[in-house]
Amino acid sequence: MLTTLIFVVASLGDLPPAPDIPVHKEPLSLDQALAYAEANNERMGLAAANVESARATWWNALSALLPTVQVSGTYTRRAFEVVVDDVQFQRFNALGATGEAQVDLIKPDAYPRVSAASEQIHAAESAAKQERLALRFDAAEQFFATLAAERVAEAARRRVEVAQAAVDDASERFRAGLAAGNTVTRAELELATARVTATETENEAQIARLTLSFTLGVDVLGELVEPKAVASASEDSQRLFQLARGERFDLEALRYRKDAAEVATLAPKLDWLPELSLRGVYTATNEPAFIGRDTNWNIFATLGWQLFDGGVRIADAIETSAALRRFELEIRSLERDVRLRIENQLRQIKTSRALVAEAEARLALASRNADEVKQRLQAGLSTGLEAADAAASLFDAQAELERQRFEARIAELGVRRAVASGPLAP
């Protein structure tokens, strides 16, 4: 066990150092957060790599239609020479060079493969745009989640201050003989509850900020700037669905992949046709022998027709047809899913607005009650314990309002995400 531990510790010394994470100490706006996410998050790099891979696949398909050229040279050391009638058939040191070029003049199945690979490039580019959009929405949701969590944590800290003041007030009244001992105990219990709540909300706020920092690829230390309100999304579900069909990049990518699969179905069919290739060979040697020339060249035209390949073309035809059907079904499934998301998010928006209005009314009531208790406390007509209860009610109302506002924002973002439009769309 000790040997294993020593080996692991020694191995850690060979690991590369962790990359330095940039730090943002100034106030952070939503636009800055989105820019950080695009610049630092690995998801954008992965999407770009997929595009490069698709382009390489296209070049690979195109290479079947381009000529190939190769050259080679040989040196041979022999044990003896052969000379007949002053014609040298074999030298001690024989040198040779060959240049060869070949091109397929007719290769029917290559053309649809090149076209399909071109469609796959468009699909990869659309998928990269979709990934960028998804990243922006993820960053925005985490930005708003952090804002809400930190506001709840701030309200919890104010509750602790009020609860501490209630404990001090109850203790003074108890020492003066104006309150029973259980009044102090109850105030201390409220303070302990307020401290636990403050700790929980502070941890939740820190977790939210860490999650935001991870998505942005930067250590966010500055305060978050409340973004300006944007116009609400349209509530016409049919109009939103038609907009989504034209705007969503993942649907666009699937359509390109369907087009690629449709073109690819032609390749196995065209592979039944004959192929024509042209090949040229140029040679040079220091052993001319009978021809009496140091150089020579030849051109070959080859017509080939593969009548049976063991069933490979039939299997390819079945596979490409199945791929085409799969993409058609994926497009239909995604469109139905988008329609469902839009309907659900529109209903969630209505629910969230009603809940926000209710939470605002509760907060207004809790604020008035807290103010009245504070005034009575200053006039000696109330106790610190009543102030602590009022502060607890005020905290609950503030926390609930922040939660409902966050849910309303997420619902609004959900509609825009489903449609792939709005201020966050690239």
Relevant terms:
single chain, alpha+beta
Structure in words:
Helices cover 66% and strands 13% of the residues. It is of the alpha+beta class and 426 residues long. A four-stranded antiparallel sheet has the order 2-5-7-8, with no helix packed on it. The two termini are 54 Å apart.
Rg calculated over all Cα atoms: 38 Å
Binned strand content: 5-15%
Order of the strands making up the biggest sheet: 2-5-7-8
The residue-averaged pLDDT reads 85
Q: Runs with pLDDT <50, length 5+?
A: 4-13
End-to-end span in angstroms? 54 Å
- Sequence of secondary-structure elements: HEHHEEEEHHEHHHEEHH
Number of alpha- plus pi-helical segments: 10
Shape: elongated
Instruction: Tell me the number of strands.
Output: 8
Structural class: alpha+beta
Question: Major beta sheet, specifics?
Answer: 4 strands, antiparallel
Helical amount: 55-70%
